[in-house]
Amino acid sequence: INTTIAKEIIKIRAEINNDLTAKINSRDANYATEAQNIITMINDAYEKYNEIKQVLETYHNNFNQIVNEFEIIRRTITTLQDEINQRYLIQSMNRRGSDQQ
């Protein structure tokens, strides 16, 4: 009787162990799938971040180029204004000189 009971206990124990192992493996597979999905989402987000970063760098470079061009235009206008003022001053002095003669 003891041997029969022991065999039955071993059989029940093996069934429980197999059931638990199957459930654990199933849950592990689900966790692995979820982890893979999360990693994929993170990779996608990182790729989007890199794309956005590249676009922003391009915009930044374009903006700096525009700022530099405006600075060149500003300097040119200042130079032209200075030349106009000098010519006006010279003409005014020439007129005064010819008026005094």
From TrEMBL:
By what name is this protein known? 5995_t:CDS:1
